[in-house]
């Protein structure tokens, strides 16, 4: 949330509580991906860069593809106009999201080899760079997990140094994630994006 919203929540907790409950209730029949795509459009309309980054990251985590994000922006053309759509694309490109790399647009998904299973520690995680993305690979209660290194808050690329005692702390605003589950355990409210994984001949593979 912006500093201004944080201020209003403290200054007028009841009124702002009604507002946030209204927003939550208003979208209760929509699936999370659609809800987040609509939020992307509202953030572009208001031209809040921080909000756009936050809801774009959430929409992608909920399975939105770059083509769907672009469709949503173009469908909102009557409300946004070309200038805001171009502004949004500039912000998105500045995030260096691998999905939006022009070479990746329209590419078919496939399995990528990340690491030997034996190299994944019993606790903690390893950071892997593969085909233009960085991922953290960790052991969870139900097997191996691979998480995108981009923070679900505003897309900061979380470095290896952020890893300590089974927790990842994003250097930008301090959201803390448990690497075994990917859940945000402090300061934030969204988990790391998880990739589908499988094991093949002792190697960890992830799909994107
Ligand atoms: S970008 Fe804000 S905590 Fe990571």
Molecular structure report:
This protein is α+β, with helices and mostly antiparallel strands and 208 residues long. The protein is 38% helix and 24% strand. It contains six helices and ten strands. The strands form two sheets. The protein has a six-stranded antiparallel β-sheet with strand order 1-10-9-4-3-2, with no helix packed on it. Strands 5-6-7-8 form a four-stranded antiparallel β-sheet, with no helix packed on it. α1 packs across α2 and α3 (32-46) runs antiparallel to α4. It is globular and about 50 Å long. It starts with a helix and ends with a strand. The relative contact order is 0.11. The mean pLDDT is 93. It binds FE2/S2 (inorganic) cluster. FE2/S2 (inorganic) cluster binds at residues 151, 153-154, 156, 170, 172-175.
Oligomer: single chain
Structural class: alpha+beta
What strand line-up does the widest sheet have? 1-10-9-4-3-2
| Uncertain spans | none
The number of helical elements comes to 6
The pLDDT mean sits at: 93
- Percent range for β-strand residues: 15-25%
Note the main sheet. 6 strands, antiparallel
């Amino acid at each position: 949330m912006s500093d201004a919203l944080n201020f209003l929540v403290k200054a007028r907790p009841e009124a702002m509580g009604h507002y946030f409950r209204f927003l939550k209730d208003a979208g209760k029949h929509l699936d999370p991906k659609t809800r987040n795509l609509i939020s992307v459009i509202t953030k572009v309309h208001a031209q809040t860069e921080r909000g756009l980054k936050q809801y774009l990251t959430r929409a992608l985590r909920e399975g939105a593809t770059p083509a769907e994000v672009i469709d949503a922006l173009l469908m909102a053309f009557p409300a946004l106009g070309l200038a805001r759509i171009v502004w949004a694309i500039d912000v998105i490109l500045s995030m260096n999201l691998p999905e939006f790399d022009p070479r990746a647009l329209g590419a078919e998904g496939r399995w990528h080899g990340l690491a030997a299973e034996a190299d994944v520690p019993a606790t903690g995680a390893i950071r892997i760079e593969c085909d233009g993305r960085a991922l953290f690979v960790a052991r969870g209660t139900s097997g191996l997990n691979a998480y995108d290194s981009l923070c679900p808050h505003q897309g900061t690329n979380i470095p290896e140094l952020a890893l300590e005692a089974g927790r990842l702390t994003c250097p930008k605003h301090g959201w803390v994630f448990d690497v075994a589950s990917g859940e945000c355990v402090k300061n934030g409210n969204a988990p790391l994006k998880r990739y589908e994984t499988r094991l093949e001949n002792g190697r960890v593979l992830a799909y994107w």
